[in-house]
Specification:
Elements lengths: L1 H24 L9 H12 L2 H18 L3 H21 L5 H18 L16
Helix pairs in contact: 1-3, 1-5, 3-4, 4-5
C-alpha cells in the first residue's frame, strides 16, 4: 500500500501543481464552459475567488511532492476536490471521470495518513481531568 500511496501522492501533486499554476499563468488555454457552468466559472473569475482555489492547489501540490505536511495537504485538498466533484456532477458532467480519478488518488493518500486524523473521528469528546 505504501507504493500505491507514493504513486498517488506524486500523481495528485503533479495534477494539482499543473492545474493550479495554469490558473495563474494560463499556459494551457482552455475554452470557457458553456451554460450554467460558464456562468458559475465567470462569477468565480470575476470575483478573483479562483485565485484562492488555485493557490490552495499549488500549496497542497508542493507539500505532496516534497513529502512534507502531507496530512495538511490532504486536508487542504478535501474541500477543493469536493467542489470539483460537485461542479462536474451538477454543471459539467464531461469532466466527471477526471474528477473521480483525482478523488480516488486523494482517497489512497488519505488511507496512508489516516492516523493523523484519528482525533477528528471520535464520537464523543473525552473531557480533560
Amino acid at each position: 500500500m505504501k507504493t500505491a500511496s507514493l504513486i498517488a501522492r506524486y500523481l495528485a501533486g503533479a495534477i494539482f501543481l499543473i492545474v493550479g499554476l495554469n490558473g495563474f499563468l494560463n499556459f494551457i488555454p482552455m475554452p470557457p464552459p458553456g451554460g450554467i457552468a460558464g456562468q458559475f466559472m465567470g462569477a468565480l473569475y470575476a470575483s478573483h475567488y479562483l485565485w484562492v482555489i488555485f493557490a490552495f492547489q499549488v500549496i497542497a501540490a508542493v507539500l505532496l511532492l516534497i513529502n512534507r505536511y502531507v496530512p495538511l495537504a490532504v486536508a487542504m485538498l478535501a474541500p477543493v476536490i469536493a467542489n470539483i466533484l460537485s461542479f462536474h456532477a451538477f454543471m459539467a458532467p464531461s469532466g466527471l471521470p477526471l474528477a473521480f480519478f483525482v478523488a480516488a488518488l486523494w482517497a489512497v493518500i488519505f488511507v496512508d495518513v489516516r492516523p493523523a486524523f484519528t482525533g477528528l473521528f471520535q464520537a464523543r469528546l473525552q473531557p480533560r481531568a
